[in-house]
Design a protein that fits this description.
Layout: E1 2-8, H1 14-26, E2 32-38, H2 49-63, E3 69-79, H3 82-95, E4 99-103, H4 111-116, E5 119-122, H5 130-148
Parallel strand pairs: 1-2, 1-4, 3-4, 3-5
Helix pairs in contact: 1-5, 3-5
Length: about 160
């Protein structure tokens, strides 16, 4: 199984790249985490932000590998505690299907992305900075994996 984190944004600070790489690198090959960056739309005073969000959504949807189970990361989604995320990961592994996690830009996910998703996952009721979401998702996926493997990382 591969997990594709499809996220709007590029040119992340070094701490984001290092944090993501640290946790993604800890995951084994049978549960590989792959980052697919989507270029953000241009944001100026005169731009229609809804249109920018739709265009980013179109690029995200075209980046989803075939036959993926699509999950939208969205504040309105379901919250999972760590043991629940571990059970979700076990289910994903058993299905044999790749996973695509969609993270929108500053205006959130396009409606088309929400409609394509089979489920929605909320990391928090708080509004999180998009660079931090990458690191947080990678760490939580590693933590869920460590629970499945009875690894002492999660205590």
């Amino acid at each position: 199984m591969r997990i594709h984190l499809i996220a709007v944004g590029n040119r992340m600070p070094a701490w984001v790249q290092e944090g993501f790489a640290e946790y993604a690198g800890r995951l084994p090959p049978e549960c590989r985490l792959n980052l697919i960056e989507i270029a953000p739309g241009k944001r100026t005073r005169a731009v229609d932000l809804e249109r920018v969000r739709e265009q980013e959504g179109e690029r995200m949807l075209s980046a989803i590998p075939k036959s993926c189970h699509v999950i939208a990361l969205d504040m309105s989604g379901r919250t999972w505690d760590t043991p629940e995320l571990s059970r979700q990961m076990q289910s994903w592994l058993q299905s044999g299907q790749d996973i695509a996690l969609l993270v929108g830009g500053p205006e959130g996910l396009a409606d088309a992305c929400r409609q394509q998703a089979r489920e929605a996952w909320s990391l928090s009721a708080l509004t999180l900075p998009h660079p931090l979401v990458r690191v947080l998702v990678a760490e939580q996926l590693y933590r869920a994996w460590s629970i499945l493997q009875n690894h002492p990382y999660h205590r």
